[in-house]
Amino acid sequence: MNTQHNQSTWQEKLQKATALLEEILRENPVVYRSNKEIIFNTSDSAIKFCSAKIGFSEREEFLVIFLDNKHCLIKAEIMFQGSINTTSVYPREIIKRGLQLNAAAAILSHNHPSGDVTPSQSDQLITQKIKQACELVDIRIIDHIVVAPNDHYSFLEQSDM
């Protein structure tokens, strides 16, 4: 019985993720310039990308989307993983990876498995710390997006950047 419940829960999450991906592709919020090049041309495109990537995870994950000067995707990486309600984030590692990839900009994102996307005080502090540190090496932090299965919070949209 328990195994059947876990399997149905997993299948429900997979169906939701698939539906979200289909919606993303249908609405075309990101412009595909070639098979390998994705441009984040709106906040909505970044939000939907982050939601599809980490919005349904059962533990906190911290995603960094590294971009070039034209906001073309270089690489999206889940850089840190934690527990159901916290994860440790190391700005030094974000900067190191951004420099390795020659990124000009980045979008930060993490999920709140609880479903409440309200940023904590720690979320706000780490965002400012990462932004200030990245400015020193000419990597612009465009947004920090908190996602949950059915909601999001964009620091940029809320003028918290």
TrEMBL record:
Keyword set includes Transmembrane: no
Coiled coil (residue ranges): none
Family matches, as InterPro entries: MPN, RadC_JAB, UPF0758, UPF0758_CS
Annotated transmembrane regions: none
GO molecular function, one term: metallopeptidase activity
Stored Pfam families: RadC
Keywords for this protein: Hydrolase, Metal-binding, Metalloprotease, Protease, Zinc
Name by which UniProt lists this protein: MPN domain-containing protein
